[in-house]
Give the backbone structure.
Amino acid sequence: MIQPTKIVCVGRNYADHAKELGNAVPNPLSEPPILFIKPPSSLIGLDEGVVWKDGLGECHFECELSIQIGQTLKDADEVQARAAISGVTLGLDLTLRDLQNSLKKQGYPWERAKAFDGSCVLGDWLAPDFITDYKNASYTFKVNGETRQVGETSHMLFDVIGLIAHISHTFTLEKGDVVMTGTPAGVAALHAGDQLEMTLDTQLGAVSWKTFVR
C-alpha cells in the first residue's frame, strides 16, 4: 500500500449527521466544505483493532467512503479529479467525541480528537471502476451485527468528484493521499469487544471489511 502524505477529511457532508450533533448544516451553494487533515500516523490496519487512550472519553465511529489519489492533483477540474482516483474503499474516521466537544466549546482546533494515533481505519483498496457512478453508491456499517449507519452518496451535500477537485485548490493532493468524504447519521460510542463490519454496495456488487475494538 502506498503511504499517504495526508488524509483529507470532510466534515458535515450529510445533513442528518450535522443535525444529530447539533451542528449547522452547510449550504453547498454558498459555503465551502469543512476540511481537516489526519496525518499518516493515524492509520492502522483492520487486523490491529481499534483502541484509544483511557481517560479521553467516548470514541465514536464514523464510517465513510474513502478515495485514494493516484497522481499529483493541484487546482484540478472535475474531469482531472475523476481521472486521478486510483482506489476506493470504506474507512472509519474515529472521533474522541467528549474531547472534540470540549475543544469546540473553547474555540480550539479538533486535531486532538480527530488525528490521534489509530484514528483512521481503512479497508483494502478496490479498483476505482468498482464504483461506476459516484453519485449513486451506498454503504452500511454494522456493530455486533446491527446496522448502525447507512450512507447514500446521493445524499451528500458535496459530491465526491466535486470534493476532490475543490480540495485540490487548497491542498495539493499527492500520490497515495486519501480523501474521506464524510459520514451519515447514526454515529455512536464504541465499546471494548465490539465487532465492526463495513460493506460497500455498488452496481458491480458488495464488498465487506471487518475489524474490532480491543
Q: What stands out?
A: The CA atoms of residues 101 and 171 lie 26 Å apart. The helical segments are 15-20, 78-83, 97-105, 111-114, 160-168.
